[in-house]
């Protein structure tokens, strides 16, 4: 099979892990601090706080901004459930706005969703393409709201030549399938000293000084083993992303103007890093999305459906009010999206085989 994703772990990561094992300092220690400094510099902010995964990064970032029971956070319904779970963990309520053709939050709908309880806006840079951060940042400033960026799929993506994770408080995931990985891990990025200090307390049992607990905190810390991998992966991220972009351009060129098959809509001022290359299979293609996915699987090509059911339609969300039809763009996309392999381990032959296999499915 040609896999939908493939972590690229080399000798550098293996040697870095061996050095940590030999040191005897396996938990949060000097490698975590080194990785945090490097990642903060990469994003262009003063602070980066390493966490155990992307979900804990989102949870801790929301708490660091004081989001809690009775508050509302505006976000998109088209995402992985973890984005919304992080809001629920704080006791706050997610308030959804529909998406646009970029699969991201539609800023034109945000103002109407703001109430006296709104505390933050959480754009999700889905598949590696930034949301419209000019519009979202302006709305947040006008209404005195926090911006929590879910950049878990967007390592190195840029809006107007500025990296995501630097517009508000950024949250990243380093899960195994991401553009860079630590196996499991996350990162919070911010330019605000107070937010960074609160986040550090929250992820480490509420401690500023060891064994003195000033607030309720959690064990959301990263290990030195994970950080050692992440530090080496960060050095390679530019090359990984460049290959993803090259693969995406190949698909764009060969799959353009195919009736019923829509390539990703990349909006102006965005640098897309293609965590996923996500097509839309519409009725004019002649086969359903699921039939195309099955046919590709039979030919040895793995695909992904991210995501088959919007968050507001999930059983776990039914007590929060949104019903079927409430967000028509998100619901239509959930029926059409199909991600094909775009990871940097693809060969040129792989790409051509995937294109030929897709074209053979059309009407």
Please provide a brief summary of the model.
With about 375 residues, the chain is an alpha/beta fold.
Descriptive account of the structure:
The structure is a single chain. It is built from 11 helices and 15 strands. It has a 7-stranded mixed beta sheet, with helices on both faces. The longest helix has 32 residues. The model has no long low-confidence stretch (mean pLDDT 96).
How big is the Rg? 20 Å
SS-based structural class? alpha/beta
At the fold tier of CATH, the topology name of the largest domain is Aspartate Aminotransferase, domain 2
Q: Write the CATH architecture name of the largest domain.
A: 3-Layer(aba) Sandwich
Summarize this structure as a short list of keywords or feature phrases.
single chain; alpha/beta; 3-stranded antiparallel beta sheet; 37% helix
Topology:
Layout: H1 11-23, H2 30-43, E1 47-51, H3 54-64, E2 72-75, H4 81-89, E3 93-96, H5 110-113, E4 118-122, H6 133-142, E5 146-150, E6 158-159, E7 162-163, E8 169-173, E9 186-190, H7 193-203, E10 207-209, E11 212-213, H8 224-255, E12 261-262, E13 270-271, E14 277-281, H9 289-298, H10 328-336, E15 337-340, H11 348-359
Parallel strand pairs: 2-3, 2-4, 4-5, 5-8
Antiparallel strand pairs: 1-9, 6-7, 6-13, 8-9, 10-11, 12-14, 14-15
Helix pairs in contact: 1-8, 2-8, 3-4, 3-7
């Amino acid at each position: 099979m040609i896999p939908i994703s493939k972590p690229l772990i080399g000798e550098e990561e293996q040697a870095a892990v061996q050095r940590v094992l030999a040191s005897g300092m396996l938990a949060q220690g000097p490698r975590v601090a080194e990785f945090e400094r490097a990642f903060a510099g990469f994003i262009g902010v003063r602070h980066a706080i390493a966490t155990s995964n992307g979900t804990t990064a989102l949870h801790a970032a929301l708490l660091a901004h004081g989001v809690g029971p009775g508050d509302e956070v505006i976000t998109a319904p088209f995402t992985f459930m973890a984005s919304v779970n992080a809001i629920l963990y704080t006791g706050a309520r997610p308030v959804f706005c529909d998406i646009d053709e970029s699969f991201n939050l539609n800023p034109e709908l945000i103002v109407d969703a703001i109430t006296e309880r709104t505390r933050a806006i959480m754009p999700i840079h889905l598949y590696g393409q930034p949301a419209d951060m000019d519009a979202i940042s302006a709305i947040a400033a006008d209404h005195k709201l926090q911006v929590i960026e879910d950049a878990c799929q967007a390592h190195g993506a840029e809006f107007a030549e500025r990296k995501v994770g630097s517009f508000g408080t950024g949250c990243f995931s380093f899960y195994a399938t991401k553009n860079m990985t630590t196996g499991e891990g996350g990162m919070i990025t911010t330019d605000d000293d107070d937010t960074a200090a609160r986040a550090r307390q929250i992820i480490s049992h509420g401690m500023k000084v060891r064994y003195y607990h000033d607030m309720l905190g959690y064990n959301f810390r990263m290990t030195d083993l994970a950080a050692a991998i992440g530090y080496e992966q960060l050095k390679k991220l530019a090359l990984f992303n460049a290959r993803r972009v090259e693969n995406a351009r190949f698909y764009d060129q060969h799959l353009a103007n195919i009736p019923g098959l829509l390539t990703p809509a990349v909006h102006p001022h965005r640098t897309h890093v293609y965590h996923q290359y996500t097509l839309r299979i519409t009725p004019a293609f002649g086969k359903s999305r699921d039939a195309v996915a099955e046919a590709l699987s039979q030919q040895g090509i793995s695909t992904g459906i991210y995501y088959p059911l919007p968050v507001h339609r999930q059983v776990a969300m039914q007590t929060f009010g949104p019903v079927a039809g409430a967000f028509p763009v998100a619901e239509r996309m959930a029926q059409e999206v199909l991600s094909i392999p775009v990871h940097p381990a693809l060969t040129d032959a792989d790409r051509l085989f995937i294109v030929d296999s897709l074209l053979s499915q059309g009407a």
